[in-house]
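Internal ticket - ligand job 193, adenosine monophosphate:
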Amino acid sequence: MRKLKHLCVFCGASTPSHAAHAQAILELGNTMLSRRIGLVYGGGRVGLMGIVAERVMAGGGTVLGVIPHQLQRRELANLDVTELKLVDTMHERKTIMYERSDGFVVMPGGFGTLDEAMEILTWKQLGIHDKPIVFVSIGGYFDGLAALFERSIQDGLLKPEYRQLFAIVPSIGALFEYLDSYEPKMEGISPWA
Ligand code: AMP
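stdout (structure tokens):
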């Protein structure tokens, strides 16, 4: 694929009860450092998002955080990242995160993570972009979502070709294998079809 310089990571603003999630996000940060890939993320110090930003900064990488003014306190805006953008709305946050990234990694998270992932997926479905979107299903975290997508295809609510819009992988190793060989395949994907 085209050179991956900046990866956007969507992940939980909470601290998960399973150590595997924190370990995986640290592994993600380490791999980004070794590949000199910059992090784009939600700009907070809390939860998994805080862990990955801290790891990349501590390892000498670059981090862009994008956070709305009203979340500055709640998510403990990280003023120590390479660049912190304070914005007015959630939509502005998502737009900047989208524009500044070459691909999207969805790690375990809650409603916010799912919202961000679904929006970037729908933008791809509409042909607005062709960047890779990968869910990293640590310990099968996204199994239920994968099953829901398959159910939607079976029930005729999602086109089968939309399977090519995203990948669900089991590990950070598999994430980078997917990204390394990624070629956008957008056949049959058109809002007007
Ligand atoms: P969560 O997965 O719920 O822990 O949230 C992860 C991140 O998603 C947090 O930084 C939230 O502020 C962010 N988030 C929640 N809703 C939205 C939204 N509508 N647009 C952009 N970011 C959001």
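Auto-summary: The mean pLDDT is 95. The chain has six helices and seven strands.
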